[in-house]
Design brief:
Layout lengths: L4 H5 L18 H6 L21 H5 L9 H6 L1 H16 L19 E8 L4 E6 L9 E10 L4 E3 L9 E4 L7 E10 L2 E2 L3 E2 L4 E2 L5 E5 L9 E4 L4 E10 L3 E6 L2 E2 L6 E4 L3 E6 L8 E9 L2 E12 L8 E7 L2 E6 L12 E8 L5 E8 L3 E4 L7 E10 L2 E2 L4 E2 L4 E2 L19 E7 L4 E4 L4 E10 L3 E6 L2 E2 L6 E6 L2 E6 L8 E9 L2 E12 L3
Parallel strand pairs: 11-18, 29-36
Antiparallel strand pairs: 1-2, 2-5, 3-4, 3-6, 6-7, 6-8, 6-9, 10-12, 12-16, 13-14, 13-17, 15-16, 17-18, 19-20, 20-23, 21-22, 21-24, 24-25, 24-26, 24-27, 28-30, 30-34, 31-32, 31-35, 33-34, 35-36
Amino acid sequence: MPAKAPIKKSPAAKAAPGKPQAAPAPVPEPVQEVPVPEVPVPEAPVPIPEPVENSVPEASAPPTETPAPETEVSVPAPAAPVSEPEKAPEVVEEPPPEPEALKEEPPSEPIELTVDEIDDTSISLKWKAPEKEGTAALDGYLLEYQKEGQEWIAVNKEPSVSTRYKIQNLNTGDKVTVRVTAVSKAGNSAPRALENFVQIREIVDRPKIRLPRYLRQTFVKHVGEAVNLVIPFQGKPRPQVHWTKNGQPLDPKHASVRNSESDTILFIRTAERKDSGIYELTVQIDTLEDKAKIEIKIAERPGPPKSIKLLDAWGFNAALEWTPPLDDGNSDITGYTVQKADKKTGEWFTVQEHYRQTNCTVSDLIMGNSYFFRVFSENLCGLSEKAAVTKDCAFIKKTGITYTPPEYKDRDFAEPPKFTQALANRATTTGYSTKLFCCVRGSPKPKIVWLKNQMEIREDPKFRCLVNQGVCSLEIRKPCPFDGGVYTCKAINSLGEASVDCRLDVRVPQ
């Protein structure tokens, strides 16, 4: 078939020299740039007998029956690249508008920046995380230090996650201050700096107060006594010692302080009630310090109760009532002491001590006598110097007394016999004495009868019957096989009878 030869050449852009229509050679080039799915497919595709290197022209080849389709290849080929550029801009869609970004808020500044430890070449600091974290999580903290009169110097390039940091390689004697900044993706916080400059020097021993045990509770002294408190402490170099009372400096007219390298002394020559309060001791080395609080109470005896009344007197008793004193002596009232005095003798006797209520009843008074009463207040310092005394006299009247003894019904203890412990079966050997035991109770006392095989055991020297406090025993002396059988213990009184049985086996040794 000579018609197939020109069909193979036309896809390779090799036209016949005698045909002027094949002059435009660059027509197949745009066809190669078009993607395979976009190339138009002929209505009646015919299988290609031989493979061709380029798949695009192979798909656009005309039918091989007649040479006329050569013109069909040239017509659609230029149309494909023209239509493809027109569709390309339609496929591209503009991206949707991005939403407005939230306003980023940086964290707040760290809090409570303090010096933890100092030595001759370094300083250790600690702080707490900021109260507000901001819109992003914290990445860490950046530290800077500044020597006195110089610029700030960065300590760490990468943020530190910990809330503690030790700055090293410092010079002894330098005065530095430090500031910390919280860092996050939303930005940096405002820096938090130390309040004062800190001198770099070796602190061999941290300041510490060794408060005595008796000062860990309220320290009480009486008015007019001397207060002399010796409180040891430690620290090297020598720490600075400060005393305050209720948050204010001490008044040197009332209290004096003496300090040494290892202790401090608070001395008050003559204590007054106004010297009471909370004293605070501070031992400080640079920014390191230790504090102790001491509560001192200067007390005196309280005043007497405000008033006392005799409410009533009846029989052998008298009822009293009083009110707390106006002056408690700068200490809590711990109780009252009540005393009575016979009008005839005038001697006072204590009725109640450390009594906490404000009313009481005095008993065991003597008929026909008259009594006065008085009450003392009491606190940590002791009893009040004066007492509140009743104005009225309590007279105990005489009354006739007749004693009528109570009537009691006699209890009836009568009951029929009852065995509280029964007989137990026993086995014995010929020639060896044995005993049988049981317990019985009853009222009146029951009569005990022993039977062997329903036969009453009478006065037989081989048997011995005993009864002691309700315990009944039967002794069988050197029994023989004939003595075996059923033994019965019977208890009889006027209200009834009871019995228990057991078996005795007498064995012959082999």
